[in-house]
Design the sequence.
């Protein structure tokens, strides 16, 4: 629906396996995804809340496994995901909005 002209990015997921070692930095999965960057004025049009410390926002597919604390590599920059919001259309989440710093 919205990813017609999506751009490539890499989602870095850390420590998703249940383990007893809290300081395990080797549990890293990198998944290529498509994102659509946009600004705050477009976020308000969708009726979603803004995050004060966010530097940017990205739209991702509704089945993307992004969570708060993951990283997003886009155009040779690394962003940390601050908040994941779902945009509801017709009683289901149609896409997720990532607030990044």
Sequence:
């Amino acid at each position: 629906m919205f990813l017609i002209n999506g751009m490539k990015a890499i989602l870095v997921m850390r420590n998703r396996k249940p383990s007893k070692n809290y300081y395990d930095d080797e549990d890293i999965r990198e998944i290529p995804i498509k994102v659509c960057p946009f600004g705050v004025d477009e976020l308000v049009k969708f009726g979603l809340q803004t995050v004060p410390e966010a530097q940017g926002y990205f739209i991702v597919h509704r089945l993307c496994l992004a969570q708060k604390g993951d990283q997003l590599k886009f155009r040779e920059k690394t962003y940390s995901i601050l908040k994941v919001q779902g945009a509801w259309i017709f009683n289901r989440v149609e896409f997720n909005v990532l607030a990044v710093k």
Q: What stands out?
A: The longest helix spans residues 40-46. The helical segments are 40-46. The two ends are 26 Å apart (CA to CA).
